[in-house]
Amino acid sequence: MANVAKKNHEPLLHIVKRDDMNTWQAWLVRIAAILVGFLVIGLMSSFMTKMSLGEVYNIMFRGTFGRLLEGKTTLLWRYLQQTSILLCLALAVTPAFRMRFWNCGAEGQALIGGLAAMVCMIEIGDAVPSGVLIAIIAVSSILAGAVWGLIPALFQAHYKTNETLFTLMMNYVATQIVAYYVYITGSGSGIIQPVKTGNLPLLFGQKYLLNIVIVAVLTIVLYIYMKYSKHGYEITVAGESQNTARYIGINVKKVIIRTMMISGAICGIAGMLLVAGTDHSINTNTVGGQGFTAIMISWLGQFNPFIMTAMAGLVTFLETGAAKIADTCFLNSSYADIVSGIVILLVVGCEFFIRYSIKLRHSKKGGATA
Q1: Domain ranges of the chain
Q2: pTM score
Q3: How far apart are CA 326 and CA 44, in angstroms?
C-alpha cells in the first residue's frame, strides 16, 4: 500500500500553459511589472542616498531628458541617439533570432562597419566630393557588416558549426582589428582624433536627427519585411522547423546565408551611424557593449520592431537615469547596471506568468490527497 501511495503521489505544484489570457490583459501585466520595477529601484535608491522618492525620480528624469521646460534639449537628443543605436542593433539581430540562428556577433559586426566608415573617411576623405564620400561610406559599412555576418552563416549552413560560439569569437577578431588600425593610424597613441571629412550631414541643424530618422525608417522597413514579404515568411518557417521548410521547398542554407547578411548589414549601418554620424572617430569601445544589450531588447520586444522601440527607450532611460544618480550621490558605477537589471528581471519574470499558471494539487473525493 505504501508503494502504491508513493507511486500515485503528485507534486504539490503544477505548471500549466495558459490559453485564456487576452492580449490587453498580458499588456496590463507587463505594465504592472515595469511600474513595480520603478517602485523597487526608487525605494532602493532612496534608502541608499537618503533622498525622497520624488528627488530620486527627478534626478533620473533630468539626468536623461534635461531641463525641457527651460528649452534645454541637448540631453533629450542624446537620449534619442542612444536609443536609436540600441534599437538599430536590436533590429539587426531580430531576423536571425526569428530563424533560430543565435547571432551574438552584433558588437563585432557593428565595429567592422564602423571601421569601414573610418577607413573611407581617412583614406579618401579629401579625394572625392562630400556627397560621393558619404555614399561610399554607407556602401562600405553595409558590405563590411554583411561580410562579417556571412562568415559564420557559411560555416553553419555547410558545416553545422555552433553559431553562438562562432559569432562571439568574431567579436574578438573585430575588436583586435580595430585596435591594430587605431594603433597604426594614431601613431601609437591609441587615439584617432575626430575626422572632419565624411561626417553625416546635419538635419535641421541637429547632429543626431539624421541617425534617428534612419533608424526609424529601418524599423518600419524591417517590420514590413518580416511580416509581409516572402523572405520574412521563409525566415519564420525555417525558424519553426527546418525539416518543414525543406519539405515545402525552401532552401534553408540560402535563407540562413541571406538572413545573416541582412543582420550584419544592419549592424554595419549602426557602426556607420556611430562613427560618421556621432563620434567621427573609432576605438575598441565605440559600440560600448550595446550589441549584447540589443539581444535582450530583441527578446523582450518579442521580435516586434515597434515593441522593441519601447523596450530600447526604457532600457536607455534606466541606464542613463541610474548613472546620473550614481554620479550625483557618489555610488558605484555598477549601480546603473543593477537598476536596469532589476526592472528587466521583473519584465522577463512576468512573461512566465503570462504564458503559464501555477496550480496547487487538490484532494480527490473519497480519498487522500493525490
Answers
A1: 52-328
A2: 0.89
A3: 12
pLDDT of residue 368: 43
Q: Tell me how far apart the alpha carbons of residues 291 and 322 are, in angstroms, rounded to a whole number.
A: 20
Report the distance separating Cα 270 and Cα 289, nearest Å: 13
Strand pairing category for 356-360 and 13-17? antiparallel
What would the CATH number be for the domain defined by 52-328? 1.10.3470
User: How far apart are alpha carbons 69 and 266 in whole angstroms?
Assistant: 36
d(CA 343, CA 25): 19
* Nearest to 361, CA basis, from 1, 8, 2, 4: 8
Distances (CA, A) of 217 to 107, 118, 213: 22, 24, 6
Contacts of 216 (CB under 8 A, 6+ apart): 84
Average pLDDT by consecutive 10-residue portion of the chain (370 residues)?
54 75 82 90 88 90 83 87 96 95 95 96 91 95 97 95 95 95 81 89 88 96 96 94 93 96 97 94 92 91 93 92 87 82 85 79 49
| Secondary structure in 3-state letters for the chain | CHHHHHHCCCCCEEEEECCCCCHHHHHHHHHHHHHHHHHHHHHHHHHHHCCCHHHHHHHHHHHHHCCHHHCCCHHHHHHHHHHHHHHHHHHHHHHHHHCCCCCCCHHHHHHHHHHHHHHHHHHCCCCCCHHHHHHHHHHHHHHHHHHHHHHHHHHHHHHCCCHHHHHHHHHHHHHHHHHHHHHHHCCCCCCCCCCCCCCCCCECCECCHHHHHHHHHHHHHHHHHHHHCHHHHHHHHHHHCHHHHHHCCCCHHHHHHHHHHHHHHHHHHHHHHHHHHHHCCCCCCCCCCHHHHHHHHHHHCCCCHHHHHHHHHHHHHHHHHHHHHHHHCCCCCCHHHHHHHHHHHHHHHHHHHHHEEEEECCECCCCCEC
